[in-house]
């Protein structure tokens, strides 16, 4: 007989909170009928200054199956929180979850940049990525290096050896789910190995809070700058250039909604 759910939640407080945040955001997106194009990350929107999408894309999911798959894997990977004796633990989990969210997203944009600028694959200019899988794949990789004997449990009945889980899952999702973002998942794996091998290290409470502070600042600044959300108490001097594309807004009662070109479903990548 397994452990009571409440007991497991207390053993994985950070994981439980992250699952709660992703689930709440998914319900909000469904209730407000928000499309993935409004919260997802693409090269085109990043160039236009929508840097806030680096965060919103990571915590958004386009379907309940997408959410359940990511959260099921994340729940299993929450075992990292219980490995304080191995130099991991809750603080390590929180610190490097923050690193994974930011660096994996930046790495995806870097891949898009190379494919667009060097290889002229214009398709990747408007591909929109959403989902927490970059972080999930990152933690799979870290756990595979730190504790290769552990298992990855999915949906409560599927069990994979963690040592092979990152690349097994990368291949499996690419075959089974055509929209799965190979580059997004690969980015999570690369950042995960960088953390596990000590190439990225030194995170502590000071640096984590400093990084979080800059993320919040850039999030609010880019929201205000792009006009995606109106912060009346923040004033940013606008520089108008008639040669640049503009983003318009459509009035809707007392609110403002972003007017964007609808993206075809083929242009979304699930991460």
TrEMBL record:
It comes from Acorus calamus. One of its GO terms (molecular function) is serine-type endopeptidase activity. The chain crosses the membrane at residues 12-29, 58-80, 92-115, 127-145, 157-177, 182-200, 206-223. The keyword Mitochondrion does not apply. The lineage of its organism: Eukaryota, Viridiplantae, Streptophyta, Embryophyta, Tracheophyta. Residues 49-200 form the Peptidase S54 rhomboid domain. The keyword Transmembrane helix applies. It is a multi-pass membrane protein. GO terms for cellular component: membrane. PANTHER family: PEPTIDASE S54 RHOMBOID DOMAIN-CONTAINING PROTEIN-RELATED, RHOMBOID PROTEASE. Belongs to the peptidase S54 family. This is Peptidase S54 rhomboid domain-containing protein. It is found in: Membrane. Its main location: membrane. InterPro entries: Peptidase_S54_rhomboid_dom, Rhomboid-like_sf, Rhomboid_protease_S54. Keywords: Membrane, Transmembrane, Transmembrane helix.
């Amino acid at each position: 007989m397994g452990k009571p759910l409440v007991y497991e939640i207390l053993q994985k407080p950070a994981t439980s909170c992250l699952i709660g945040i992703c689930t709440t955001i998914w319900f909000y997106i469904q209730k407000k009928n928000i499309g993935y194009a409004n919260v997802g990350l693409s090269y085109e929107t990043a160039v236009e200054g929508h840097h806030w999408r680096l965060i919103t894309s990571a915590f958004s999911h386009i379907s309940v199956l997408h959410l359940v798959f990511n959260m099921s894997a994340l729940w299993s990977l929450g075992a990292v929180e219980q490995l304080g004796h191995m130099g991991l633990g809750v603080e390590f989990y929180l610190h490097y979850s923050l690193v994974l969210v930011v660096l994996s997203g930046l790495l995806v944009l870097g891949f898009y940049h190379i494919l667009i600028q060097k290889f002229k694959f214009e398709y990747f200019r408007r591909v929109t990525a959403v989902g927490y899988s970059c972080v999930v794949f990152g933690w799979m990789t870290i756990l595979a290096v730190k504790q290769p004997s552990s298992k990855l449990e999915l949906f409560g009945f599927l069990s994979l050896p963690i040592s092979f889980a990152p690349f097994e899952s990368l291949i499996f999702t690419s075959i089974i789910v055509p929209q799965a973002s190979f580059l997004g998942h690969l980015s999570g794996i690369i950042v995960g190995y960088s953390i596990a091998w000590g190439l990225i290290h030194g995170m502590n409470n000071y640096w984590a809070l400093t990084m979080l502070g800059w993320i919040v600042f850039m999030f609010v600044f880019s929201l205000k700058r792009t006009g995606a959300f109106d912060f009346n108490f923040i004033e940013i001097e606008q520089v108008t250039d008639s040669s640049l594309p503009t983003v318009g807004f459509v009035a809707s009662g007392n609110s403002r909604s972003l007017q964007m070109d609808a993206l075809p479903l083929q242009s979304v990548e699930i991460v």
